[in-house]
Amino acid sequence: MFDIKEELKKLPSKPGVYIMKNADDEIIYVGKAISLKNRVRQYFQSNRNHSAKVISMVSHIAEFEYIVTDSEMEALILECNLIKEHSPKYNIMLKDDKMYPYIKVTVNEDFPRVMMVRKVVKDGARYFGPITDAYAVKETIEMINKMWPLRKCRKVLPRDTGKERPCLNFYIGQCCAPCQGNVSKEEYRAYVNEALDFLDGKHKDIIEKMKKKMEEAAENMEFETAAGYRDKIRYIKSVEERQKMANTGMNDSDVIAFVRAFDEALIQVFFIRGGKVMGREHFLINNTEDMSRSEIITEFVKQFYSGTAFIPKELILSEELVEGEREVIVNFLSHIKGSRVTVTVPVKGEKKQLVELAYKNASITFEQFGEKIKRDNARTKGAFEQISNALGLEKVPVRVEAYDISDIQGFFSVGAMVVFENGKPKRSDYRKFKIKTVAGANDFASMQEVLTRRINHGIKDGMDKKESGFARLPDLILMDGGKPQVKAAELVLNSFGLNIPVCGMFKDDRHRTKGLLFNGEEIYLPSNSEGFKLVTRIQDEVHRFAIEYHRKLRETAQVDSILNHIPTIGETRRKALLRHFGDIEKIKRAEVSELLEVEGMNIKSAETVYSFFRQENPEMK
Questions:
Q1: pTM (predicted TM-score)
Q2: How far is CA 81 from CA 86, 87, 90, 304, in A?
C-alpha cells in the first residue's frame, strides 16, 4: 500500500520530474521541479490557495513517482516527453500535432537536388520553411524544376555516372543529365545557386541575370533560347506580384498570441522566415481553466518547440513566460537549435503590431472554430459517452479496438484491427494479421488466433516498455459480427484473465449497421444519435481495412506468380517494378522507355520484361 505521507518524507531536494497516478495506475499529471521535495509537498498541504483544478487532481492521486535529473533543463525535456507519451488528464494538451513541410536543397551533394521533407536534420543541406501550405511547397518545387534543369533521381553521383540511360526528365528538358557527365559541377552549381536565390526571395537579381542571357541569345540569333528566358522572367514577375508575404525586416521569428474561453485556448502563430511572413497556423489546447495567461503561453512554448523540426532565432510573445521559467526555457530552446534563441514581449513598434495582428486572427479563428469544437466533441467523446451509457459501462472508454475477418472460401484469410481513441481513428495503431493456424473458412477460430496474437504482443511490449500499437490494451472491444464472434473474443480474454467488455456489431438484412450485442442482449441506439453514427463508422472502417488487406494479398500473389517467370528478373527488380507501376496491367503495357524509369532497370532487363509480355500476349505487339 502506497503511503503518501511517508513517501513525501523521502523526496530529495533535487531537480527532476514527478508523476502523479490515480487508483487505476493511470498517469494523471506530470510536472517538473527545481526541488522535488518542495514542489510535490505543496500539493498535499492546505488547499486554501489551490485552484479548483488542482484540488480535483489531488483528490484522485493514489501514488506518485519521481525521476531525479542533473538540471532543471533536463527535467524540462523529460517533462515534455512524458506529457506527449501519456497525455495526462490534468496537463494542458496541445491538440494539433503537425509536421510542417520544408523545401530541402541538398547542397551537401556534388549535384544537389530540390525536394520536400518534413524533418530538419543537421546534414549540411539548406532548408526553407516551415511552410504551412503543403500544396505551395509542391508548386514551388515544380516551378523550380521547370526553371532550372536539376536532377530528381536518387543516384549517387559521381559514383553512378554513365551506369544507366538518362531518365525521361532529360528527354523533356527538365534535367541536364549529370548522371551522363553532360554537365560539369561548376555549371550545375550555377543552376543550383540561382534556385537558392529564388528561394531566398532574390527575384530582382535572378531577373537581371536572365535578361542578360536573353539579350545574348537574341544577339546570337538563338531565338528559341531567348524566348525561354523571356517566359521564365515573366513567370518570376508573376510570382512576385501574387506573393502575399509581407516584408517585416526581421529574420527568422515566430509571433505568438492567443485567446481563451472556458477550458480552451486558441494559439495563433505567424512564421517569419528571412524577414517575410511565410505562413500562419492556429493550435488548440485544452485544460486551461484556472491557468494564468503566462502559464498557458509557457506550456505551449514547451510542448510545441520540444517537438517541432525548426526553432527560429526569436520568439515574439503576447505574454511573459512564467517567472522563474524564462531562463531555463531559453536555454532549452538554444540547446536544441544549437545557437542563441531570444524571447521578446514587445510593448511598442512593429513587433507589437505583429502580436496584435496575431491576436486579432486568433479571435476571428476562435469565433469560427467554437461551433466546430462542439460538433467535433459530440461526434467523438460525446459519442463514446452515449455508447458507454447504452451499455451501462462503469467508465467511458478512451481506447476502442474493432476486429474483422476477411476471406474468400477460406483462402487468403486475414484479420484486421482498427483503433479509435477519444472517438477518433488512430491509424498509427491499426494492425493487419495474416491467419497462420486456421485452414479454410472458420471465422471463430480465425478471430481467436488474431486476438491471442494481439494480446500476447501487448503483454510482451508492455513488459519490454515498447511504444507500439499493441502496448496499451483496449477499454472496449467491438467485433464485426454477432454471437460467434463475441464468444470467440470472450474465450480468449478469459484465458488471459482479462476483463474487457466485448460487443458485437451486427447488421440488418440490407447489410447496414443495426445495433450492438452485449452480454447476450441486443442494444439499439437511436439511428440519428452520434453514438450510432460512430458505431457505423467503426464497423465500416474495420471492414474496409480488412478487405483492403485481403485484396492486396490476392493481387500480390497473382503478380508475383507472373513476374517470377520472367527470366533474369530477380526479387529486387520485381519489387521495383511493382513500386513504380502499382499493378500488373501497367507493367504489361509499359514501353521500354517507361520500364527504364524503374529504379535498378537497365536496357537489357527492360527489353526482357517488354518481350516477355509480348510473347505471352501476341495481340499486344
A1: 0.45
A2: 9, 10, 16, 11
